[in-house]
Amino acid sequence: MTTPPRKQELASLLAPHGQEHLLRFWERLSPTEQSNFAEQLRGVDWAQVTGWVRQTTDDDAAALPFDQLKPAPYQSLTPTSEEERRTHAEAIQHGEYLLRQGRVAAFTVAGGQGTRLGYDGPKGTYPATPIRKKSLFQLFAEGIIRTQERYQVTIPWYIMTSLVNDRETRDFFQKNNYFGLKPANVTTIVQGMLPAFDDDGRALLAAPDSLAMSPNGHGGSFAALRDSGALDEMADHGITTISYWQVDNPLVKQFDPLFIGLHDLTGADISSRALIKRDAAEKLGHFCQLNNRLYIVEYSDMPSDMLQQKDSDGRLRFRAGSPAIHILERDFVQRLTDGALDFLPHCARKKVPFIDQDGNLVTPDEPNAVKIEFFLFDAIPLANHSLVLETDRSEQFAPIKNADGEDSPASSRAALAARTAAWFKQAGIPFPLDQDGQPAATVELSPRTLNSPEDLQAAARRLPIIQPGKDYYLE
Hints:
It is a single chain. The chain has helices at residues 7-14, 31-42, 46-56, 59-62, 82-100, 136-151, 166-175, 221-227, 230-236, 257-265, 304-308, 330-338, 393-396, 409-426, 453-458, and strands spanning 70-71, 104-109, 157-161, 186-190, 193-195, 205-207, 210-211, 213-215, 241-246, 270-276, 285-290, 293-297, 320-322, 326-329, 346-350, 354-355, 361-362, 369-373, 386-390, 442-445, 471-474. The protein has 475 residues and is α/β, with parallel strands linked by helices. Strands 1, 2, 3, 4, 9, 10, 11, 12, 13, 14 and 19 form an eleven-stranded mixed sheet that branches. A two-stranded antiparallel sheet has the order 5-8. It is globular and about 75 Å long. The N and C termini lie far apart (60 Å).
């Protein structure tokens, strides 16, 4: 028989960290509620978490020496010398070798909901394509299947969900028969949660028997990989390299042999794609260098005058932005998580519903709480070696973040259409364009069979002639 939790024991746990107020409704709770709440309270490392809150809200401790920041160097996507051409060719060959050897796993961060899109459900279930309305998850699944066929290998896919959407995500995959993937090769791992705090550093309650919790950020993926057993499973199957992308980017090239090959040949712990910013205001983290270490500095943290700086060629000085496409070395993630993660989380002021002193639910109109979260890129300075490789925006980046305007479903579909037209041109197949040079037909390609210009070229004889103003789904 389980011994009921005693209030005094929990008070002794919470009081040293100024959190004993969390027990103010204890006597109102049923034995079951008390037991569940006690388990939640004991599951928080209060010394560590309250320390993070103090550190991340201390402006002096968190401030970067911006006057010492320099733009980080990055490798150009286009070789400019014979030596670079040989290096790229060797990297592509090596990346394909790693894929054929089964050394690469897929990892998608998908803990968010489609709330900002006006969509009720996990963002990965959002219908992203123009004709078949395929979900983001389906696009990625079909791309994985095509890659498996190309390299005659099985690629395990790990998807980080959250407590908010894990069940719905798993149900979605089951309902759709995993889009043709074997269920054993698709694993969801749940992102960790952290308490939210008020401005005085006091944890908030979501209910009399529950903390107000929030996901711990995409940097929490390291601990999630460890705690779920995914890292051990990867090691058992000979996986050395993890291809990481976020769920909102349908254009991502999931397994780029050039990127994978350069990562491995240079001995990088973590590698990142760099996107040349379209303007100073684009909301991308900036690749920076400080004391010969690589950093990504959030756009919201960069002083506005630095964002506007130009170099001698008239280009933005801090022009290399992060589209959150990475390659992680499994050993590096293992090293980071063997002990406590030694990079600080960030804090953000958010609107968090909470229970007030009288037990009433308060839904604030303005930010009222501090949420703490880890960013994956804060691990980059801890790497022994990092690689940054430029990427082509038109080929790999068209996120679905906003309901309209830039980075919206409409802009993403337009980017998919433009890439399809470009692939037809690369394959030597005619494609109609309007007077402005934009695609004059709507063509949706199935990643299951047509996932590259090379796939199109191989299928050219069976493809229809694309007529202006018509819609086509090709597979």
